[in-house]
Amino acid sequence: MVGSRKRRRTPKSDWEFPVLTDILGLRPEQQRLIVIIATVIGVLVAGTGLVIAINSIGDYAPERQASAAVLSPDAALPQVFQGWNSPKLFDPLSERAKDGKALTEKEVFGQSELAVSKKLKLKLVAKRLDTDCSAALWGENLLEQVSDAGCTQVARGLYASSDGRYIGQYTLLNLKDGTSASELVQALNTLYRGGWARPLTSAKATFPAGGYSEAGGYALGHYVGLVWLGRTDGTEPTPKDDFVSLTLALRGAEKAVYRRVVTITGPSS
After folding, report:
1. How far apart are CA 121 and CA 159, in angstroms?
2. CB 187 within 8 A of CB 224
3. For a tag site, which of 170, 200, 219, 240 has the least CB within 10 Å?
């Protein structure tokens, strides 16, 4: 008698889930189709979320300069800046409350020429005094800090060298106190890249758009002096270009601030 063979049970399908089999009565191949469709939908949803995330990352720019559109990319802007704190000499001018008299155009730019050497001079070709500081400066972050510093006046003077090779501008800001002046000078070490003094214009001289120029900031009590200097052809200076002497000459406009120190302390100081 041939022994009866036991009937082998069909192995359970990998695509058979109790919930889908017992409750919905779906066959394994139907369950497999549902899983595939669900997987595709999940990938698409995840992909959409990834695209949104990537786009949001692309839109994020830390400390984006909202003032970037104020001037064109090739606008005149110094490539180098260095700032200096106020010397003790200007301590008597640490508070504008002790130096309440407003600046005048004649006081700051009374000299039509500033001597660089025996042969070279800087000639004043344009000047302007603004009581609205935002009219003389640009850059959102710079304007905000200047406003917080209580800026009430900005005096600007544009100079051209007697040999036609150089152009310079001196800007003097009237702030509320020495602390604000020092903070502004230090902040300009980074702020100048996204905001600066607006250049005056003249038929006799103009800063070349996109050209090379250098600048310095000086805290002078509650004042800040900005020196801006470049070659008229926009090229970088060579060893023959004495920018140190040119800078010292441009700072001749600071004589107005020195005179105010003497007014407070007396000639003997």
Report:
1. 9
2. no
3. 240
Do residues 28 and 12 make contact, with C-beta atoms less than 8 angstroms apart? no
The stretches in the chain having pLDDT less than 70 are 1-75, 268-269
Q: Which two tokens stand for residue 242?
A: 């004495």
Supply 11's token pair: 């192995």
To 10 degrees, what angle do helices 178-191 and 140-148 make? 170
Supply 61's token pair. Answer: 């720019």
Please give the Cα distance from 237 to 229 (Å, whole number): 10
Please work out, in degrees rounded to the nearest 5, the angle formed at the alpha carbon of residue 251 by the alpha carbons of 248 and 253.
145
* pTM as predicted: 0.73
Exposure string for 121-152, b = 16+ CB within 10 A, e = fewer: bbebbbbbbbeebeebbbbbbbbebbeebebb
At 213 the pLDDT is 96
For the chain, give every domain's residue range. Answer: 18-59, 80-265
Per the CB < 8 A criterion, the answer to whether 162 and 121 are in contact is yes
Closest CA to 139 of 81, 73, 61, 194: 194
